[in-house]
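Lecture 7 notes: from sequence to structure.
We start with the chain below.
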Amino acid sequence: MKKGTEGGRQKRTAPRQARLVLEDGFEFSGWSFGKPRSQAGEVVFTTGMTGYPQSLTDPSFRGQILVATYPLMGNYGIPLDRKSGEPFFDAQGIPLHFESPAVQVSGFAVSEECEEPSHFAGASTLSLWLEKNNVPGIYGIDTRALTKRLREHGVMLGKILVEGCRDTTMDSGVIAHPVAEVSGRGVTTYYPEGAEGALPRIALIDCGAKANILRCLLARKAIVIRLPWNHDLEGIDYDGLFLSNGPGDPKTCGKTIAMVRKAFDYGKPIFGICLGNQIMALAAGGDTYKLPYGHRGQNQPCTEVGTKRCYITSQNHGYAVRGESLPQNWEPWFINANDGTIEGIRSTAGPFSAVQFHPEGCPGPRDTEFLIDRFLEEAGSALKIHGK
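Predicted structure tokens for the same chain:
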């Protein structure tokens, strides 16, 4: 296989050679950027053209080496505070431009990485930002050939090996419980700015929640109580339960599944996204399975069952709900227009629903944010019913 070229990157002095080695023995040769270190992880690809700062900080990518199918990354830099070099946060500590405070991926593989970004908010190059976060990258590889291989053979473990750096094993990139790594450690309550009167209280189960979930809920004047993935709902005063996105196999979240199963009995509205969709299905008695190469990007078409309406959605998941496993009083809500997989479920017996895609987007289209509005309307109704 051809070794990657520098692609006009004359300003980078003596770049180190690097290889991306897959567990099936296939190798891609290129050059190191970011932190020059060897690192293993599950190799997955995303079809997004933009939004790399949000994707790289998405906790759902924990433990994965992300491959960008779009040929150029880093062209608009990284939005950081120019004085401190740190991310921007709001008054409540929520990241403004990222989905979490730090880079979550184990590695980043691109065809070409831009050394001279052009954007008024770009205070750092992609390479320097990855280096600061101790994350290796590899550029100059044939990402098209790599993506085709992953589509044909499925996602697999791999490792980035950098010239002069110590080797690492494939299984060193396996994280037994990634949700436990990215979930918050305590209970945090967020209040919407300038809101008065009785407001819906949303319990957000943080399995690796993206920051834009918080931003969307607070913008709609909801009080958000953020709970760790394994926190009990006993003693929590809430009007609606929100199940977040997160990394890995949903079946490792046994405590979350048991908690949601118990929450069904309370009868309060529950809404889930991404991993939350899979957890809801498991709590209802359904089953999940691993997709060959998953859905990652901002251009996944989903059709609402019973209608001809198709939405373009942002997605990042490697597991799906097994449709035939859904029990009585549960039904598919959305279907992926590409491969027919389940993209949403809902109960016909209670205010419980979830989607596999990201209605909050970021990056990606936000055409389905109305689903968050619908959930908050249900939570507001629950608030009125209970006389708050």
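Points to note: The chain has two domains: 17-175, 179-385. The first strand starts at residue 17 and ends at 22.
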